[in-house]
Amino acid sequence: QQQQQQQQQQQQVSSFNSSNNSSSYNNNNNKQPPRHKGKWILDADSKDFLEYPAELKENLRQEKRKRLAEVQQQMKFILESDDIQDTHGHWDCCRQSQYHSECIS
Predict the structure, then answer these.
(1) Residue 99 CA, distance from chain mean position
(2) What predicted TM-score, i.e. pTM, was given to this entire model?
(3) Contact yes or no for 79/87 (Cβ under 8 A)
(4) CA 91 to each of CA 69, 87, 104: distance values in angstroms, whole numbers, following the listed order
(5) Beta-carbon neighbour count of residue 80 at 10 Å?
(6) Res 96: pLDDT
(7) Which regions of 1-105 does DSSP assign to beta strands (E)?
(8) How far apart are CA 86 and CA 100, in angstroms?
(9) Using an 8 Å Cβ cutoff, are 19 and 54 in contact?
(10) pLDDT along the chain (105 residues), means of 10
């Protein structure tokens, strides 16, 4: 589950790979825009970011991924819930670290 969360977070962080400089953007990564009566209006910070050179944008994205991974590691001790399946540990019989994994001993 933790690995899935890390993968989802990395996907979210790297989901914006477009160098599209227009004032509308489809955040579903589909070719067809979402069905809205209006127009997508970019926030000022998004407009500013899109104007950066490609190399700078990629460097910033890499730094963001790195820092998010560091924070996630630092906060690993904070469990998602009080359910036993959300705790960190291992099975003493086979050393599997996923609660719902099959026993391999």
Answers:
(1) 23
(2) 0.53
(3) yes
(4) 26, 12, 10
(5) 11
(6) 92
(7) none
(8) 10
(9) yes
(10) 54 42 47 83 96 98 98 94 93 92 90
